[in-house]
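Recap quiz, item 2
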Amino acid sequence: MISPHLVHFESLVPDTETHARRGRLWTPHGIVETPVFMPVGTVGSVKSLTPDDLYADDVRIILGNTYHLYLRPGHELIRDFGGLHKFINWKGAMLTDSGGFQVFSLKGIRKIEEEGVTFRSHLDGSKHLFTPEKVIGIEEAIGADIIMAFDECPPALESRAYFEKSLARTTRWLHRCNNAWKREQSSLFGIVQGGLFKDLRRRHIEEVCALDLPGFALGGYSVGESPEEMHEGVADCAHLLPADRPRYLMGVGTPVDLVTCTMAGIDMFDCVLPTRTARHGLLYTSQGKVVIKKKALYQRDEGPLDPNCNCYTCRNFSRAYLHHLFITKEILAMRLNSIHNVHYLVTLMARVRKELEQGTFAAFAKEFLNSPAACR
Amino acid sequence: MISPHLVHFESLVPDTETHARRGRLWTPHGIVETPVFMPVGTVGSVKSLTPDDLYADDVRIILGNTYHLYLRPGHELIRDFGGLHKFINWKGAMLTDSGGFQVFSLKGIRKIEEEGVTFRSHLDGSKHLFTPEKVIGIEEAIGADIIMAFDECPPALESRAYFEKSLARTTRWLHRCNNAWKREQSSLFGIVQGGLFKDLRRRHIEEVCALDLPGFALGGYSVGESPEEMHEGVADCAHLLPADRPRYLMGVGTPVDLVTCTMAGIDMFDCVLPTRTARHGLLYTSQGKVVIKKKALYQRDEGPLDPNCNCYTCRNFSRAYLHHLFITKEILAMRLNSIHNVHYLVTLMARVRKELEQGTFAAFAKEFLNSPAACR
């Protein structure tokens, strides 16, 4: 354990009506105002976007995926280049997951043991072993400001017996991660699992937060359960995470998820959904979700995608042009759509922060969740 | 025929040693300094690039493809939106080809008659007829600053007898195009054909240039002949086109082609090659062509793609990162590569113009064509 942590958190304005808080996260690569949505740059780019596109969208922190970067270009190459920041020329803050989620998604080609997880690459079938120590080494080579502990992320619908066994091992792995952690510029966050078993979640929070880590995350949501089950689970336990540390809900989510789980006390969110759905022509707007391929609706629509949005796409192009680019499979469609969806979520979180500052968040959240903008 | 033409040309500095000239093209959407390379926006976008990317690359004029835009989104929709400029939000100058090249590429699914060409859409097999009158109507609906006459573009290796017959028809079609042309803001350019038959080219130049059109083009090059044959053909006839009108070489080309054919007296070039090859990882640089997928060469190369280039890609990213993006098939690779290749050709032509102004073009061209930068 390294202390004082380089990544630290300040809760500026706790909400009086919900568990939400307006906060601020200091990192070696700048301040991140919270609650915040973090776009995912899986293999070293937020798909289709340049760093400048992200700065223009007011993105201050992005994710990298340890599993993907370990396979290509390899963490040693990244370290030799002075870290992922330099390799991809990203000047903001950065977080890497532990690869656990990806490795456990490799059904049938991985084996979990006390030592770690043996898996085969989805690219070439080559055999690899991830241990807590190895993963921390990889993450430190990648050099993000925030690195995540190596955990097991079981499907939500696994049995209680399986979770009991898995959680005990994840806790042991967390201690091994903490012992392996050496790099001061990379702050280690612990991850709480437990699926939808509320008592197991609470018990695991106690175990994980017994370590004085710079931040804590809820993992194992959005892995098969319904959104309602996820919301209920997060609402039950997020506020039990330490108030003086950032609370990160991994792999979530949609506009509805962001507002709902902010109420539960979450400060940080990440999800591939807004960029993935953008590439598939599904766009969040203040008037609801737009499925841009719909000819009858959009082929002749001269208006912007979202009249209330100030992103590059909405300032410059019509729905008709976005429809045309999408159905003709022009690459530009993916980029313009991604710029918008990222901007939409970043702007939504800026609005959430403003409402928290004004003490009007609970009313805003209620109104938002009953509006057409409450997309999933 | 409309006169005086809204698009007009001034030869500023004719070269004393070659047929090259430093010129200026006035259009309703700004001045274009010549010689110039024009990127191609086939279906309403220069693939992967926004208008702002193109402005940043100092692009002042782009192309649209009549055949593709006629099929999708349709010229009537474009007209209803106030033209292609507004539809795609491009503020610079614009030129549309006549669709002839595309239609004649549809081997086996088209039929040429005096009236026009019947063809089937490559998208859905639907049957269409392009006549000179219809094509001019489509181009006027699209509303580019420069529109091209509807011609037949035979393969370079067609027989002399075929060319004789085809050229006579193309001349008759040109008169029909000229009679159909009504829109003052769209200036009609005539197209000279004739393959590699020098006498036929010269005769067709006389026939085509007998009409007082605002500009003239050489079509039917880069359609099966070798680069050397193309260079020889262009060198033989380009300078015979009227000196007071812009001379446009259609569908050409590479850095070598641009410099060589500028010597022959060409003012305007277009080609899909720089953006297409960019998407395939082939990059023009001052040090020669870079095949970015080559692992042994570029996986650990920390330098910029071209140390002499000032484009966004070269200012911000290493060859190693471009290699990584390309082999991981990230969409961003296509965009960063396209930004560079377009910038490279635009900058090459800016250099050509400067050398012409200084009276040093012939020496520059000789040196360039003997340097590693003479890519094909």
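DSSP finds 16 helices and 17 strands in chain B.
The two ends of chain B are 39 Å apart (CA to CA).
End of item.
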